[in-house]
Amino acid sequence: MDPSDEHPQRYNLVNELHARPSPRLTAPCTAVFLAFKEPHDAANRDRSRDTEHLSDLCHRHGVPRPDTSAGHFAAQLGRYELRWESHTEFVTYAAFTPGVPQRPFDPAAAEVFPEDWQRAAPASASPP
């Protein structure tokens, strides 16, 4: 391929994909995924509220305050491997843990994301 034929954003896209590698999982495992989006003008939200919410989750699990300057973060929260990503209009949280629950879709599998913490998400709560 002639380099002049490449899309002008190819280099940036490839770098972004390498900056956010997919987790390596061993089956069987359980995955819990959450996404939070502000209901209005989400692309222009106060992103510091997103990072404070992530910091609160880390604090609850005894993990140091995250560096989110890259727009993504990974940490071990007890038996869960956490992945957090900030996107243009929303943030995502994914938690993975070995094994499977005794019941399919058991709500207890989501214990890594406490209900009161979920209710306090910037997308759920009123601005301060």
Element string (H = helix, E = strand): HEHEEEH
| Silhouette | globular
Rg is 17 Å
Question: Helicity, in percent?
Answer: 10-25%
> Largest sheet at a glance?
4 strands, antiparallel
> What is the typical, i.e. mean, pLDDT?
87
Structural class based on helices, strands and sheet pairing: alpha+beta
**Count of runs of 4 or more consecutive helical residues:** 3
- Strand fraction: 15-25%
Strand tally is 4
Overview of the molecule:
This protein is α+β, with helices and mostly antiparallel strands. The chain has one domain. The protein is 23% helix and 23% strand. It has three helices and four strands. The chain has a four-stranded antiparallel beta sheet, covered by helices on one side. A hairpin with a 2-residue loop joins β2 and β3.
Provide the descriptors you would attach to this structure in a database record.
alpha+beta, single chain, 128 residues
In short:
It is built from 3 helices and 4 strands, in the order H-E-H-E-E-E-H. The chain is 23% helix and 23% strand.
